[in-house]
């Protein structure tokens, strides 16, 4: 018996020793004394700000990719390419562009480019640096004398494309959907071709005489013309009362492309007629400069790249409304679908509201677009079908008066911010709608269901206002889609001004 007890004791001790050895090997305590991994890190990289202090040099900007820098790799930290302002080649204005990665800097005294905006962390002390850098990027009267002769400056200035951009506007003038209209720019490649039909079309016609996919309009880059194609419709398509569809109507063959001109009348089926308006605007007439910067490391957590859910867009001018334009950013949560939907709908809703001449005149005379922005947000929320995804939304509406001065007014939901700088004076254009913010806790208290001390979330979200998230709004009435709307800012023609829209 004693021998068996001794053997059992020895076995237990051996097992304990084995477990301790495994724990020792797993913890690798010797790593604190000897480093087996080398890191390539330049002196000063750890203190490098988000926007480089070397704003006088433009060489680094040409070497950055669209996200501004390289990512962290296993075993080394690559920071040889600094994070900073990236100015893409100047292009004509487009409709909402659903690309992620960056933060929007709008200089309202210079020409325009198309950019994409995404998740970014900004610090207030860099605003002055950004203003200096944005002014150095573009050819404009406010560039400091002598810079035009600087070699680096000349290489950095984007080339102006002399081409003209074309705007196509369609208005239904007869049929069940009379009064419906839509517009698109020739540069809006993400939205082309434009489809017309009864099902899942860009111009949706609720007419039994119209086929599901009836006709299509596209921009011919070679001919610089808009072209119409019948998509094998059952009841045919007429252009100025002449049929363009394939002769064999039973084959469902597409027709050959037919050029469109300003003033054409399209007839789809037998009842719906559409008026075509085509206008052109020279690119170098656009009065804005737009730049983009991003912090690529904000997309990573623990070395794992996160999905980007931020979307940026801008339109100047709005289709058919030469004096107005919008700039915006949406930050999605639970996915990117809600941000994409809002980025497409918001400028369309604003354009539809401002298409009424009386509304435009009221905005111009009162120097206030609060009601336009409020209705646009309300209509967007009503049109969105995102039950389990939502997004923040920040929209900056800019318009020009008859004296070529500008006005800017902002509306927002959530915590995507907009800051303006007018002649060195910083103006906050947005309100934070986090659950922890004082204004939101006060609003929720007034509803009659105040938050408890220490509550930082509603149904798991740290935001109390957003677009989408229909399911959560049905569960808790404290969620809201009512935007905060700033005062309109008057920007004199001679002032130096920029706006910064950012999400984090």
Q: Runs with pLDDT <50, length 5+? A: 35-99, 110-163
> Helix content range of the residues, please?
10-25%
- What is Rg? 28 Å
Compute the separation of the termini in Å.
71 Å
What class would the helix/strand composition place it in?
Answer: alpha+beta
Strand tally, please? 27
Shape: extended
How would a textbook summarize the main sheet? 8 strands, antiparallel
pLDDT averaged over residues: 75
**How much beta, percentage-wise?**
25-35%
| Number of helical regions | 9
Describe the structure.
The protein has 504 residues and is α+β, with helices and mostly antiparallel strands. Helices cover 21% and strands 26% of the residues. The protein is built from 9 helices and 27 strands. Helix 5 crosses helix 7. It is extended and about 110 Å long. About 24% of the residues have low confidence.
Core attributes:
single chain, alpha+beta, 504 residues, eight-stranded antiparallel sheet, extended
What layout of secondary structure does this protein have?
Elements: H1 2-27, H2 59-62, E1 85-86, E2 103-107, H3 127-137, H4 151-156, E3 164-174, E4 181-185, E5 194-197, E6 203-204, E7 215-220, E8 225-230, E9 237-239, E10 242-243, E11 258-259, E12 265-268, E13 272-282, E14 289-293, E15 300-301, E16 304-305, E17 310-315, E18 324-333, H5 337-354, H6 357-366, H7 370-383, E19 390-391, E20 393-400, E21 406-413, E22 417-422, E23 425-428, H8 438-447, E24 467-468, H9 470-475, E25 484-485, E26 489-491, E27 497-502
Parallel strand pairs: 5-6
Antiparallel strand pairs: 1-14, 2-14, 2-27, 3-4, 3-13, 5-7, 7-8, 8-11, 9-10, 9-12, 12-13, 15-16, 17-18, 18-19, 18-20, 19-24, 20-21, 21-25, 21-26, 22-23, 22-27
